[in-house]
Design goal:
The two termini are 33 Å apart. The protein is α/β, with parallel strands linked by helices. It has one domain: Vaccinia Virus protein VP39 (Rossmann fold, 3-Layer(aba) Sandwich). Helices cover 37% and strands 18% of the residues. The relative contact order is 0.16. The protein is built from 10 helices and 7 strands. The protein has a 7-stranded mixed beta sheet with strand order 3-2-1-4-5-7-6, with helices on both faces.
Length: 260
């Protein structure tokens, strides 16, 4: 079940692919995930659920590292693109929303990836609870969300001062715009996780510097230096707090008394 106000990307697969992954920012996002995830998550070939997996970049990343992956994506168009491009990998495809997963793919899952999903939902706090239900005791969650504070800063840099002052930062979910309808703050995420007893083991900013550059078309030498700066400071305070996305490595303690 998808609530009527959640954003689904049917009809937007081409724009999504070009805007988010066909440009330098998409390359940098994937490079930083490749840098961070092996250092911050116990990746031991366990089955993984990729919630809102979109075009399948993270499912492919996991499958190539020995994980049996289930990719759940509510958009028929996005799921079809992913399925066509990921043949031969150990990936099961489910056309399901996050809200439908407890009924159709309850797990419990030892590893869940939920990247850039919550900000497109009308009720992201409720979604955290659903993900918690799916996650096995002792399991790990990789959660990435669109950072509301970075969105405010970006609007100020662009001169949209009234918008920033009025806190009119969320997108409407209409037409071809890709501004999230529910951009989130670190305090919101940390509070919701703590309420459920989920433990943040690591947090990093994804694209801490890139999106604020005045140079919109940097050359290869500049990009190489930029990538190194992003890797060096992505999880260093205070820089991570202005990442366009916030990436959390989260552990669900096993309270059953068993050793995991």
């Amino acid at each position: 079940m998808v609530t009527s106000s959640d954003r689904i990307f049917d009809g937007l697969a081409d724009k999504f692919a070009a805007s988010l992954y066909g440009a330098t920012r998409g390359e940098l996002r994937l490079a930083l995930l490749d840098h961070l995830l092996p250092r911050t998550l116990p990746l031991e070939g366990q089955p993984a659920l990729d919630i809102g997996g979109g075009l399948g970049q993270m499912s492919a990343w996991l499958a190539r590292r020995g994980h049996a992956v289930t990719l759940a994506e509510p958009s028929e168009e996005m799921q079809g693109r992913a399925q066509a491009s990921l043949t031969g990998l150990d990936i099961e495809f489910l056309q399901l929303s996050l809200q439908a997963l407890p009924e159709h793919a309850p797990g419990p899952w030892p590893l869940i990836v939920c990247h850039a999903v919550l900000e497109w939902l009308a009720n992201p706090e409720e979604a955290i609870g659903i993900v918690d239900e799916l996650l096995a005791p002792g399991g790990h969650l990789s959660l990435m969300v669109f950072n509301r504070d970075a969105l405010r800063f970006s609007n100020i840099v662009k001169g949209n001062l009234g918008k920033a002052l009025d806190d009119r930062l969320a997108g409407t979910g209409k037409r071809q715009r890709l501004t999230p309808i529910s951009p989130l703050t670190h305090d919101q995420i940390a509070g919701w996780l703590a309420e459920r007893g989920l433990v943040i083991e690591h947090v990093a900013g994804i694209r801490v510097f890139h999106d604020y550059l005045r140079e919109r078309d940097p050359d290869e030498a500049m990009l190489a230096r930029l990538f190194e700066l992003e890797r060096r400071y992505c999880d260093v305070d205070p820089h991570w707090r202005l990442g366009r996305y916030l990436l959390y490595s989260i552990h669900k303690p096993d309270t059953s008394g068993q050793i995991v």
